[in-house]
Amino acid sequence: MSDFANEYERQRQENIRRNEEILQQLNIPDIVRSFKKPKPKPRPPKVKTQPIRHSLRLRGVKPDSSEGILSDLSMAKDSRKDYEVDKVQTNDVNFDSVPGGKEGLKAVRWRCRSLNLKTTEDWSSVKVTPERIYCISVHPSKDKILVSAGDKQGSLGFWDVNEINVNEYGNGECQTFMFDAHTKTITCSQYSPTDSNLLFTSSYDGSIRYLDLNQAKSIETFVSNEYTYTHFDMDSTGQIIYFSTNEGTVGVKDIRQPITVFNGYDLHDKKVGCISLNPIRPELMVTASLDRTMCLWDIRKLGSDCKVQEFTFTKSVTSAYWSPTGDKVVSTSYDDLMRVFYYNEERKLKERIQIPNNNQVGRWVTMFRATWNPNPNLHPHFIVGNMKRSADIYSAVTGELIGNMRDENLSAIPAVNAFHPKLNIIVSGNASGRMVVWQEKPKVTPIVLV
């Protein structure tokens, strides 16, 4: 065994010697020695960074505390929040011309505080449409609280708020039903001013229809392949529809004429997202456009010199509505400001109040529109969605916040909101196709024991 090991070692040494001779002949050792070690790359200089943001929970600070927030340099201010509310001092307001006077403002504030989210043990919101809600309408009846919503895919859903059905398991279920009214997004819905059984809707599918609640039938009013309809309003007779389009055209449609007959006017260069007729002065109309303007028009002169005023914004204007008394306009814009305009004796609109509101809703939330309470006998006020999963109510006279509709059961942003025309009820819809109702709790008569 030892002889075998010695022979193996001798052959190994011989192989090592032979390999070294070959390396010497190829000058490999000199080449290897000529290599220089690469110099390490210089490290970039250290840059001072801002402190990393940490949640209040990680910092051990209570959510309702302001401790540590002001000292955190990384909490840069959002320029959109630097606005100061341009309020009108209460002492400077002549309440003699305001519905309800000075007490009317207090009354509306108490009305808002008396509202509570309608909930049961099983639900706090109701699924009304399959997709995101774009518009809401509230039936004017006092006896039956019937609300409707139009969604992204063209479905028109209804919720009979006070009707509860008991299923086979003994649980209460809401009374809802739905119609496939359109093939694309329903952009606006409105009950006829002369017949509350007719609900008109406009859609991106190029049609305006109405649903007859008595017959449960959807009927075409106007069809055109040229336009996609973004909004509409109706005159006091319920026979003339003024509609806006994605192409910047404003049209006039008499529903007594054939469904393809209408008059169109190119009033804007880009999409007109909202159109509103003055309920007191029917010759006046306001439009809100993607071209960053809000315009006042005299519809008696459509086709000629019909523009009365034009207001230019820094961002696109998403909505503009006349108040029920016809003397104010509230607008909403992507510049994160709501503006209240007063119609004066010179037959002009004058901006009076600016209110900051975060309108950067993003892609998945329906754009905010400030909408009026349609009751002309109340102190003028309007409601708008809030990105903090609530809805805000503002006075159109002082600009102050008079109500905040918030509840811990709300899990989504109530982007679309509407008042009941006659009752103290607010309806809200969100991006999940769900709706909630804010109403007063029923008064309980105390039992007197004799």
From TrEMBL:
GO molecular function: DNA binding
One GO CC term, this protein: nucleus
Presence of the UniProt keyword DNA damage in the record: yes
Keyword DNA-binding included in the entry's annotation: yes
The entry's keywords: DNA damage, DNA-binding, Repeat, WD repeat
Protein role: DNA-binding protein that binds to both single- and double-stranded DNA. Binds preferentially to UV-damaged DNA. May be involved in DNA-metabolic processes.
Family: Belongs to the WD repeat DDB2/WDR76 family.
Name of the protein in question: DNA damage-binding protein CMR1
Protein species of origin: Rhizophagus irregularis (strain DAOM 197198w)
Phylogenetic placement of the source organism: Eukaryota, Fungi, Fungi incertae sedis, Mucoromycota, Glomeromycotina
